[in-house]
Fold this sequence. Notes:
- This protein has helices at residues 13-45, 49-81, 86-123.
- It is mainly alpha-helical.
- The longest helix has 38 residues, at 86-123.
- The termini are far apart.
Amino acid sequence: MSEDGRDRFGIPKEMRAIAEAGFEQARDGFEKFLAGAQQTAETIEGRGAAVRAGAKDIGVKAISYAEKNVQASLDYAQALLHAGDLTEVMRLHSEYVKAQMRALAEQASEMGQIASRAAMDAARPKS
């Protein structure tokens, strides 16, 4: 940090704090989503053999989402390293947060659909 509160890229500490807060919000949101998905998978697994396939689908999807989201975070961090100025950092941050919020919403919707299908399969009477 320089004497005027800027880092080596000339980014004011307040702007860096905003960027870090946004990143933390995205991370917290995903962690809550993943915890909920894992809890759902555990609950469904306890319902018997009819639901195990659904629980497996949930687990596979959760892992897939985690991989995609971690990759997006790594790509974002790399892009930040190459940012030339504060304007570019803010643009990258805005794009990243929007993309992650959109991805998390889509992932939550898909996960809900999978969980609903699994619950309906479990409730279906055996023939």
